[in-house]
């Protein structure tokens, strides 16, 4: 689930995306994305029990799809509209936030709930 979310590609290309979006310091912006990911993950862990794992996971996948769609649109329309640079930065940040609320943290808790105690270590390894 985490690999299908595309989070690795976003982090790998985030510096390039920020460079293309004319961000003053793309490396610092990428580092800031990592900090946002950590901060949102802590918030997501607290919010997970209140909202429910299934609902939170569903909403995060919808948010990821919308963020990726927005990122794609910003790339396609960049030559025509100047504000698409800001849209691409917003979309990348949205991907990180929605990932942290869904596949980034929930998957580790679901394994503990699905498998019995004697099989959890094998399931986590697999």
From TrEMBL:
Annotated compartments: Membrane
What domain of life does the native source organism fall in?
A: Eukaryota
Q: Which Gene3D superfamilies match?
A: MFS general substrate transporter like domains (1.20.1250.20)
Q: Which UniProt keywords apply?
A: Membrane, Transmembrane, Transmembrane helix, Transport
Under the heading InterPro entries, the entry gives: GLUT, MFS_dom, MFS_sugar_transport-like, MFS_trans_sf, Sugar/inositol_transpt, Sugar_transporter_CS
Ranges for domain Major facilitator superfamily (MFS) profile: 1-126
The keyword Transmembrane appears for this protein: yes
The signal peptide annotation in the UniProt record is none
Question: Record's GO cellular component, any one?
Answer: membrane
What is its membrane topology? Multi-pass membrane protein
Which Pfam families does this entry report, sorted A to Z? Sugar_tr
Q: Which reaction does it catalyse?
A: D-galactose(in) = D-galactose(out); D-mannose(out) = D-mannose(in); D-glucosamine(out) = D-glucosamine(in); D-fructose(out) = D-fructose(in)
> Membrane-spanning regions, if any?
57-77, 89-111
Query: What is annotated about its quaternary structure and interactions?
Result: Homodimer.
Record's protein name: Hexose transporter 1
Please name the source species. Cyclotella atomus
């Amino acid at each position: 689930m985490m690999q299908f979310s595309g989070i690795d590609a976003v982090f790998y290309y985030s510096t390039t995306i920020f460079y293309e979006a004319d961000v003053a310091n793309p490396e610092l912006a990428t580092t800031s994305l990592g900090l946002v990911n950590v901060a949102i993950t802590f918030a997501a862990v607290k919010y997970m029990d209140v909202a429910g794992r299934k609902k939170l996971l569903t909403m995060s996948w919808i948010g990821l799809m919308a963020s990726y769609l927005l990122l794609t649109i910003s790339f396609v329309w960049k030559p025509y509209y100047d504000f698409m640079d800001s849209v691409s930065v917003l979309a990348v940040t949205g991907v990180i936030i929605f990932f942290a609320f869904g596949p980034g943290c929930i998957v580790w808790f679901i394994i503990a709930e699905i498998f019995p105690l004697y099989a959890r270590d094998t399931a986590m390894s697999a």
